[in-house]
């Protein structure tokens, strides 16, 4: 399986260590890339220690925090030798094997499958809406890399895949729901709870407009 698992860290090295160790314990032969998104704490030291535990672990240190969506975009363009990328949040614990094989099999059977994972419907601002369009949530996102650049890049937003998935599904590509939560426990907002999404004024405006139905 030509898959790269990507874990992006921003100043939560304790969570990151757990995410990497639980994933590599179950998938010791899978390639893992740890991206540090400009952390100013002791993350580099911890990541270098983690890297020494396995030859399958790679690291990428960014000078500044470019935020989660743009970091995903950078990796998707930089590591073009992989057929699939599996994005895994740093505040996760992998508890059960079998999900990578299952998602890989789904994708290999249908070239129109673009992304696999926990599917949710959202509105144009990225807020949950049962009448909206589908996205695969980023905490555990399996993506066919070759299709990515046909659509708008992931961007700095609470739902960084928003525009990309909107155009992909509009062109007939499939987002497949998969019960990933049965395999991986997500603490939810491990990084965002500590540091926020840093979406600035635009994020506040989007929240208010959505709240009042605009």
Characterize the overall form.
globular
Q: Could you tell me the strand content as a percent range? A: 25-35%
**Fold-level CATH name:** Spore Coat Polysaccharide Biosynthesis Protein SpsA, Chain A
- What's the CATH architecture? Alpha-Beta Complex
Number of domains: 1
- Uncertain segments are 201-212
- The portion of residues assigned to helices is 25-40%
Order the strands across the largest sheet as they lie in space.
Answer: 3-2-1-4-7-6-8
> Measured on Cα atoms, how large is the radius of gyration?
17 Å
Q: Total number of helical segments?
A: 7
In N-to-C order, the SSE pattern is EHEHEHEEHEEHEEHH
Tally of DSSP β-strands: 9
Structural class by sheet pairing and helices: alpha/beta
Chain-averaged pLDDT:
91
CATH class: Alpha Beta
How far is the first residue's CA from the last residue's CA? 44 Å
CATH superfamily: Spore Coat Polysaccharide Biosynthesis Protein SpsA, Chain A
Most strands sheet: 7 strands, mixed
Structure description:
With 214 residues, this protein is of the alpha/beta class. It has one domain (3-211): Alpha-Beta Complex (Spore Coat Polysaccharide Biosynthesis Protein SpsA, Chain A), CATH 3.90.550. The chain is 33% helix and 27% strand. The protein starts with a strand and ends with a helix.
